[in-house]
Amino acid sequence: MVSVRRAGERLYPGIKFYSYKVVKIIERGSEFIYIVGKKEGGMAQKFLGEFEQMVLLALLKLGDQAYGASIRQLLDQQVGRDVALGALYSTLERLEKKAMVTSRMGEATPQRGGRPKRYFDVTAKGVQALKEVRQAMNTLWQDVSICSGVCAYA
């Protein structure tokens, strides 16, 4: 993929930056030619983000009752995080693309104007990702002491 930009213009408009790496930059007067290639493995990020972790854990806690409103309510009640439904569904769709979550449609109900609820489940890959990030955090937290006031270290 080749992209030509004038000095000062954004690199890669419309392309998700984290999915690509610059292979070569050629300067031609006031223009720069960026030759980019897709990063190996697709995503540059190996670990889950904080909100992705919260969403996966909420799905596990809710079990077969995990749908948009119930996930949002659990996050608000248990961790004090008031989340917009749009942000929640964006995250759920991203996790589904990463094969960490699956979704299924429930029955249509009169209370919802005949619309069905969309339920979410964590896949084995999602559980494995949570285990890996938990192990990484536990490793980092070892031998760390946080205290208030004056701290003394050996």
Task: Annotate the secondary structure layout.
Blueprint: E1 2-6, E2 20-28, E3 31-38, H1 50-62, H2 68-79, H3 85-97, E4 101-108, E5 116-122, H4 124-141
Antiparallel strand pairs: 1-3, 2-3, 4-5
Helix pairs in contact: 1-2
Mean pLDDT across all amino acids:
81
- How far apart the termini lie comes to 55 Å
CATH superfamily of the largest domain: Winged helix-like DNA-binding domain superfamily/Winged helix DNA-binding domain
SSE pattern, N- to C-terminal: EEEHHHEEH
Question: Which stretches are low in confidence, meaning pLDDT under 50 for 5 or more residues running?
Answer: 1-7, 12-17
The fraction of residues assigned to DSSP E strands is 15-25%
Write the CATH architecture name of the largest domain: Orthogonal Bundle
Quick one: biggest sheet?
Answer: 3 strands, antiparallel
CATH level-3 fold name of the largest domain = Arc Repressor Mutant, subunit A
User: Given the helix and strand composition, which structural class is it?
Assistant: alpha+beta
Q: How many strands?
A: 5
SS field, number of helical segments: 4
Q: What would you say this structure looks like, in words?
A:
With 154 residues, the chain is α+β, with helices and mostly antiparallel strands. Helix content is 36%, strand content 24%. The protein contains 4 helices and 5 strands; from the N terminus they run E-E-E-H-H-H-E-E-H. The protein has a 3-stranded antiparallel beta sheet, with no helix packed on it. The chain has a two-stranded antiparallel sheet with strand order 4-5. The chain is extended and about 65 Å long. Residues 1-7 and 12-17 have low confidence and may be disordered.
